[in-house]
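Design a sequence for this backbone.
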């Protein structure tokens, strides 16, 4: 049913039109390993699983004769990934790997007071609902503390989606052409949960808890989608004929009721709280701001809307690097000191793409607003730029004529990174989720970059000797920034890094 790509493995049950092929194969294999233990009579041989590019939270199943295609939009995997990160950021785990005694209070404090957590939530909501593409949210290049412990949440949610759709096939829900009844949806949710419990039972004794949390994450996202789309589309959404799925709240409630009565492990409640805070409380507190942005842009994106109402929404395509750069530039030019610190940190974290794009933006005559934003961001990084742009434009022309623009851009972006390090001082060695990152009262060493004027246009990359050898190394070798041991990169992590 899917057109096959050349590099696909030769198996009839998977087809992937996007870069998520590896994820899909792993989940399909897990599904097929778990199903016989739940019900030996189930036959999955007529099902092909596929991932298609694009946003959307709606996995769906198509039937042709006795074959079924279960189709998952790639955006759903990406969205699950980003929300798992928020759940991880909401885990107050101490250095020795145990929860703080005041963990519950700390979770609520972070929701209202943590600038990084609030920014990341707003960023993913904007990416998904306004641009229809979770990939335009700033990626997590650095590993979060203890993220490996939460891999089950991400893989479990992905498996839940496949298992739910598979359940519709196995329970003969596709035998008629009509829409699913609410009872059929709830029955499919129940089967999906049982498949997850079986899958996790091969890992450890906490299979019920892990399956429940992954299911909660799915239902939390489903509810978030419904609440946000209803708020953005108002009466037009309310007036839609009852869709294929029962209301998200009802599904989540039913899911809660169906859970095992056995006592969960002590970490269960903290992860459960975090899922609730990440998918409900945090987005709710950020909703008015996002709706105002949607109003300004001309609505939410068609890919985040129900298919029946997509024609009322925006359909523009976003370039992810452009969006990342715009986001970082807006942070850097904010009046809010915490935003500026975040902007400087994300600039370093997204080296070299974002700093290079920031300089490219200076020549973007087609988008004067973006051009002005890039100028303002560079002036924040280094006030000397205020009077330097005409000379810089000249340099761009010179190096372009010499066919050296790419090298030049890389050099000059290293200068921007040095300025960002100067803004962050010692913070550049840590991360916005570390204690005290936003604390202005903490004494810090002065940045070492302020006197560097000669290399402002990057010519020759004449970086001065730096007192901190890590900085010096990072400046001399751009790739050192990517492997800096202080920043524990996500390549070492089993939670997939985003690209
Ligand atoms: Zn369904």
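Sequence:
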């Amino acid at each position: 049913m899917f057109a096959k790509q050349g590099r696909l493995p030769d198996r009839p049950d998977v087809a992937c039109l996007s870069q998520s092929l590896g994820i899909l194969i792993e989940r399909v294999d897990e599904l097929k390993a778990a199903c016989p233990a739940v019900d030996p009579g189930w036959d999955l041989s007529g099902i092909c699983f596929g991932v298609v590019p694009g946003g959307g939270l709606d996995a769906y199943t198509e039937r042709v004769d006795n074959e079924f295609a279960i189709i998952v939009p790639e955006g759903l995997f990406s969205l699950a990934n980003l929300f798992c990160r928020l759940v991880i950021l909401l885990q107050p785990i101490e250095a020795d790997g145990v929860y703080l005694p005041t963990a519950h209070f700390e979770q609520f404090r972070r929701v209202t007071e943590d600038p990084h957590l609030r920014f990341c939530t707003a960023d993913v909501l904007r990416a998904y609902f306004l641009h229809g593409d979770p990939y335009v949210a700033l990626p997590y290049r650095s590993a979060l503390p203890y993220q490996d412990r939460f891999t089950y949440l991400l893989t479990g949610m992905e498996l839940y989606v496949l298992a739910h759709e598979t359940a519709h096939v196995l329970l003969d829900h596709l035998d008629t052409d009509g829409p699913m009844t609410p009872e059929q949806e709830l029955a499919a949710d129940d089967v999906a949960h049982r498949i997850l419990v079986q899958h996790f039972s091969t890992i450890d004794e906490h299979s019920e808890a892990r399956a429940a949390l992954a299911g909660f994450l799915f239902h939390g996202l489903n509810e978030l989608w419904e609440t946000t789309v209803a708020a953005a589309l108002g009466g037009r959404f309310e007036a839609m004929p009852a869709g294929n799925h029962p209301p998200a709240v009802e599904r989540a409630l039913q899911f809660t009721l169906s859970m095992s009565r056995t006592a969960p492990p002590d970490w269960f409640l903290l992860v459960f709280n975090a899922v609730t805070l990440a998918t409900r409380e945090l987005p709710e507190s950020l909703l008015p701001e996002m709706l105002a942005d949607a109003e300004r842009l001309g609505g939410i994106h068609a890919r985040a809307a129900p298919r029946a109402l997509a024609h009322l929404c925006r359909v523009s395509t976003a370039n992810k690097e452009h969006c990342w750069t715009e986001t970082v530039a807006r942070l850097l030019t904010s009046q809010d000191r915490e935003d500026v610190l975040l902007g400087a940190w994300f600039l370093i974290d997204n080296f070299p793409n974002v700093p290079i794009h920031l300089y490219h933006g200076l020549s973007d005559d087609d988008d004067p607003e973006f051009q002005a934003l890039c100028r303002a961001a560079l002036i924040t990084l280094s006030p000397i730029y205020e009077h330097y742009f005409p000379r810089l434009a000249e340099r761009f022309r010179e190096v372009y004529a010499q066919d050296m623009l790419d090298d030049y851009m890389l050099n000059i972006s290293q200068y921007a990174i040095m300025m960002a390090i100067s803004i962050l001082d010692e913070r550049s060695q840590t991360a916005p989720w570390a204690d005290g990152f936003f604390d202005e009262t903490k004494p810090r060493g002065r940045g070492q970059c302020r006197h560097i004027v000669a290399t402002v246009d990057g010519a020759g990359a004449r970086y001065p000797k730096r007192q901190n050898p890590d900085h010096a190394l990072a400046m001399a070798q751009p790739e050192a920034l990517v492997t800096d041991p202080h920043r524990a990169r996500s390549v070492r992590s089993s939670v997939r890094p985003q690209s």
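The first strand starts at residue 14 and ends at 16.
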